Each structure stands twice: as structure tokens, then as C-alpha cells.
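Write out a record, focusing on structure:
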Amino acid sequence: MRQKDVPTVSQNIPNVTLKNGVQMPILGFGVFQVPAEETERTVTEALAAGYRHIDTAQGYQNEEAVGRVITKSGIPRDELFITTKLWIQDAGEERTKRAFDTSLRKLGLDHLDLYLIHQPFGDIYGSWRAMQDLYRQGAIRAIGVSNFLPDRLIDLIDHNEITPAVNQIETHPFYQRTLDQEIMDKRGVRLESWGPLGQGRDDLFTNPVLSGIASAHGKTVAQTVLRWLVQRNIMVIPKSARPERMAENLDIFDFTLSSEEMARIATLDTGASSVVDYHDPDTVAWMGKRRFD
């Protein structure tokens, strides 16, 4: 299947246009830390709520469950946008191609919409060569990376032919990644937020600034945070196991935050991750030893 033969995703959720012209929903559904035995129910409910972008990964160990839901859903393939990711131990040119084939088989698909290098470790340059080949063959509509700090991202861009379409990084009110976004915007890379709700850490849902803004709009803190991100042109993939929360997270396109409200949220930035430090050698060593066989 050639990329130009794949129709544009058309849903009520607004799309963003990636550097190569591919349309991607600005809001999707993530399945990180969703056990395989719960994934079918969760993704089925997400699709019923109206989500059409599903974000999974080799490392989440639930690609097969996602694939079963896609097959059973009856939703036309051209209305779905499916992302998965390559884990560290399968980095390298040949291993990446094998891992891609495995992910495609588990998902029951003949092509992917977006394929990401999950972590900036291992033979990422060999992986990128393989992903460029798969992209040129039409097996992937867009390729990108995840968790790349600006220095690693720019190095990858400057020494390869194809620029990553997306960099999926931790982004939320307490870690706003403003400089990262500025650098990415200059290079045509779209920022996609994982953990957009800060994984509920640091009392995000009771924060007085966020609560006050949410109350003024008759919305929840979660809706306010997601709205703040999409107004920054950041793609988001919130996760929830509850259907009512799934629907709530979609209901963010009927209000707008003022510039003053955006500025108030900007004051919450700590400039540091609440989850993982990619500068920490122990973190790098720990990730490099994690296997998902």
C-alpha cells in the first residue's frame, strides 16, 4: 500500500498535519500500563466513546489485545490512526525490521500510521535507517521518536534524510517543555505529550490554579489541562479505564482558555520530570536491561 493511497482520518476530533502531510488526530487514547487482560475492554470502550487514535508499544505487551479490538470493531481502517513503538533491545537495522513485522502481525494490520523509536538508547541510527526504508516502502505513513531530548533529536535530524514527524515526550503543567517545543517547531517535528495529566502526581487534580480555571469554565481539571495542551498545538494521548472519563477527556473542544489563563498555567512549570530523568546514568542502564520477550 502506497502512502498516498491511505485516506485522511476524518473524525470529530481535530487533526494536525505532520511534516509529510499525514493527518493525525490531536487527541488519542494511550494504553501504557493497561494489562493485556484489560486492554480489550478498555480499547473497545475508547473506540465506542469516539477515539480513533490508539497509542500502544512493543514494551506495553498489549499489542495483540489492541489488534483483536481493531479487527472486531468493524471500523474502516482509514478511520483509525494506530501508533506503536520499538523497544531498545530491538534497536539496529535488521532487528528493527523484524520487530516491526512482529508488531504489525500482533496488531493484525498491513501498515502502521506512526512508528516511534521508544527510547533514545541503543543503535538508534540503525533503527532509523530501517524505519526510513519501511516508510519509503509505504509500510508506515509516518515515523518518529519518543523521549528524545533536544540534543539527541537534532543530532538524529542532521545526520539522516528524513526528519522525525513526531517526538512523544512527557509534557504536562509541571513539566511544560516550552524550549523543547520551540526547537521542534523550527525543525518541523510535532510534540506529542505522554502523561498529559502528570500521571496524577504532585496533586495535579487539586492544584488551586488549575481548579480555579476549570471551575470558571464549568470543566474538570483534566479537561482544562488537555485543553491547555491542544491550544499549544500539542497532541495528547490520555489514558483512562472508566468510560465516563474517556468521554470527559474528549469533551474539550467547546471552550477556549484565555491568554491570561494560559499565562497562569505557565507559572506551574518546574522544568523537571516527575517520572524519569534521562540524564541519569542509572536510569539509562536500567532501561537498557529491560526486555519484553
About this structure: Residues 1-11 have pLDDT under 50 and may be disordered.
